[in-house]
Amino acid sequence: MKKQILDQIAEGYIPTMDEALMMMESDGIALKELIHVANVITKKHCGNRVKMCAIYAAKVGTCSGDCAFCAQSVYHNCDVHIVKIGNICSDEIVAHAVKLQKYGVERFSLVTSGERLSDLEFAHILQIYQRLHNETGIALCASLGSLDKQRAQDLVQCGVTRYHHNIETAPSFFPQICSTHSYADKLETIRIARAAGMEICSGGIISMGETPQQRIEMAYALQELNVDCVPINILNPIAGTRLEHHPLLSIDQILRTIAMFRIIMPDKTLCFAGGRQNAMGKDEYKGYKAGINALIAGDFLTTKGKDLKEELSNLTAFGCI
Hints:
This protein is an alpha/beta fold. 43% of the residues lie in helices and 14% in strands. The protein has helices spanning 2-10, 17-24, 31-46, 90-102, 119-135, 149-157, 174-177, 183-195, 212-225, 251-264, 276-280, 287-290, 308-318, and strands at 51-59, 107-112, 139-143, 160-164, 199-201, 204-206, 229-234, 269-272, 294-296. It has a nine-stranded parallel sheet. Helix 10 (251-264) links the parallel strand 7 (229-234) and strand 8 (269-272).
């Protein structure tokens, strides 16, 4: 029966919730078999090349949200270097985007903290996007919190083609992670961005205390939303946050989760995002066998990433570029 369902999945069958939960259990299907099927699906739909995107923290800290994982929240006491939009340099950002392109990075996003930018902040961001659109050939993404219809249209006019807005976790687990905004609020911004013509980048964080069933629930929620790219973050427990002492999932559980995301969303971009280095170490590159076909290169929001040369060297050694 187990072999039969794996054969069906390799041919395009999407498992039911009960079947997916069975595969999440270590005694359901061996991890090696699950990863093999996920790898077959990835190559079939996405090839063998890992795409790279990058982000720039255009506003850091003083976030009014109380997300349990976030070092930027005003509810937490974290050592974060505050960055204000009015102090960022557009020349520096454009030059950075040009450099990223030379390393093979295909997409670039400005990311801001907070639920919603002020009108003045948003106007400044639009000016930078217009320069990026005019002066570089890199594909543009944005991650600016909640949107209304006019702001979404303004971003499209400035060349932004994809909007990032994580659902963070399963709908049933969301209230335990955040109380200052709702899961429904997340969906509304995604709806507005898509209606304006942008692709959608939305995923979340695993290892925050959710159950295996809730990780599967998140995968099916993203499948139903039909998002284009799914960032998979692994909790990086940061001192001062509510989850600073939270234990991480095992490597096997992380890989099993990635494989199930690939099986449930066979043709979507699965992007390794924050926390992968801390949680996986040298085992990070097993994730590409399990279904990952993209990554965020360089630094993250409040944590350092790998040097781009090191990232390229590792991807080359793994045969991903």
